User: Fold 614/534 cytochrome P450 from Coprinopsis cinerea.
Amino acid sequence: MAWTDTEKCPPGRRMTFQDSLYTLSKGVFLKLAVPNWAMNLAETTRKIQTAFEELEPSKALIKFKVYMREMINRSGEREDLGDLFTSLLEANTHDTSIDALSDRELMGNIFIFLIAGHESTGHTIALMFGLLALYPDEQDRLLDQIKEVCGDGNICTLKSQGVALAFTTRPYDFIQLCGNDNQILLDYTLIYFQVTHIPKKSAEDTTLTTTNSRGEKTVIPVPKGTMIAIDTPGLHYNPRYWENPYEFNPDRFLKEYNKDAFVPFSSGVRSCLGRKFFETEAVITTLLFIRRYKISVKEEPQFAHETFEQRKERVMRCKPGLTLTPARIPLVFTRRDHIP
Assistant:
């Protein structure tokens, strides 16, 4: 997927793959709520319907598989890398075993990987930039950490402490070197989690032991097959586990903390399989931007006399969506005179 909007719509298609994905991610709730016969009544819903038809399994499966194969082929010989999309296509096209992916399974997996990764990662980076703009001291600390780890080298090719930092080798190890940035990412996901409720299903008969408001132990039976929703806000904002949970304080992750009280990526065997990819992408993107730009909140005359708390509430205001969605983050990126 290109970084720019210069991609042209391929022959025989009404919308580029990038536009289809973006449009549907923005309008997925409208698609769920509006009946099919009403989707053509307004320009907004017509565009959403077009995007859905470009991606919808029963109508666009063959076209979509060809589309995915074309994109993979355009990027060069990728078979030896074993990337996710190639593996999914191979499991559908060439695998003849009982474990082969059906067409619907292929489309469902590709769609959820694209939507989940595109939406949540973009919103996370935007909100994290907002926090760094609101807390310039933390931004300066992060820049110092980048200088310490990278020196004057190129962040994409530098070898530090024997670890290759090129994106195509082991970028996740870079997170371990840049501890301060990982703390910022962790504290961001504590306060601004992308998914507010995490659905689970009990795999066996069990019980949950909890404490009521009077401090009394209570045992709750949970039969096999019971649907359970983990309340992320209730857990992450619980002062029993987190001191001053509403404050942005990356240093809280320098000491021991209750791992079971921190579930931005869910937990257990069915936790988010894209966690390492997300952390790598978010950390490296943040490092590249902070290395080159100072991020600050845009000064606007109508907000000249607001307090810090008022500014924070305004800049970090979110609205419900497919994931936690920033309403408006007015930021200014000022290029640094000297790039470390």
